[in-house]
Amino acid sequence: MKYVDEPVPGYPLPIREGHSSPGRLERILRDGHFAVTSELAPPDSADPNAVYERAALFDGYVDAINATDGSGAHCHMGSLAVCALLTRLGYALIQQISCRDKNRIAIQGDILGGAAMGVCNMLCLSGDGVQTGDHPEAKPVFDLDCMSLLNIARTMRDEQTFQSGRKLDDPPRVFLGAAANPFVAPFDWRPKRLAKKVAAGAQFIQTQYCYDIDRFKTYMQEVRDLGLTEQVHILVGVGPLASARTATWMRNNVPGVHIPDDVIARLNGADDQKSEGVQLCVDMIQQLREIEGVSGVHIMAYRQEHNVPDIVERSGVLEGRTPWHPKLYEGDANIQSQMDKYDD
Known about the structure:
Strands 1-2-3-4-5-6-7-8 form an eight-stranded parallel beta barrel, surrounded by seven helices.
């Protein structure tokens, strides 16, 4: 079934009472559905078709798409540009904003720009250090961190002012998110850090990859004890592993990624490690959806984006719900007339 009352190009929805944005992701989460988001790998290209083709892989399977902002401190097409290309087709975007590369003047401008083009969700990140990426000689900015960025974005939205105090003519109506990593010590500090992000303005959370269900269950118990699941929607990061070798490399080289020995052993023992990696992801999703306080999953399928539909279908998490995508309205003359405006 198609989810009712969804925005389409040229027909923005009103903001429901108690909501911060008119966006689909916030509506899905507040209505109690299990949400699915994923990441679009930004192209190393100036060709817009590279973005359209990558987004189309997710049609009908995800509720929102993350437009990454120099993930891993590697250079790609920028988050704001990806949002510009896809919002005009009606996709729900999560604009990632990293504090690594811009100061507060530029960041506040990007918040307004994203909201103006129809971005309803923003993920506030400190950002990976430049030493981890392909331009280690770059000068990091870090004028802000994720906490101060959340505060600034919330002030722009709720108090209708820039951080300087200057009034905005029209505020950004956005649903604010942040990242969390339950899998790095000190473990008892992680729920408390989440509480600080919620206090700063985070309304949804996307976590680092989860491959350790037991560790995550302990984290979620502590999060529930703090009463945070009543204040924030938690989407757990998952993703298919291509092989035991890939898993070992990620564990040793990607900051913040924890992959237990038993996961690597499972992949090592499989005849087809890539297929087993997909099945592992499906199994993780099915276990995570049973944990109290989990509102959805964020599928990070780097170089395996084509597997996202299969993972979603096999996990059964949508329960018959079909997320909005542009092809739903193919042949509708009224909607097509709106979309044609973007092609002129």
